[in-house]
Amino acid sequence: MDDKSIMEGVLLTTKGACDLYLHATIESSSPETHKVFCSALNETLCMQDDVYNKMAQKGWYQKQNAQQQQIQQVKQKFSAGS
Q: What is this structure's pTM?
């Protein structure tokens, strides 16, 4: 297994952990539990960002900027429902 494959696995795992922590935070029944899961979510989001940035630096994850027209279309789509 090469480094890129390992990093892809780490990225997918951290994304999955973020998803789980988000739902756990939302569903927390006490302020203490909410605080613990929220903290874990924030830490995991930072880890995911670090992994993503390292992969992008190596050219393994291509960044793609959205065109201004696409941004405006999405804004219009979601503001129309308000």
A: 0.76
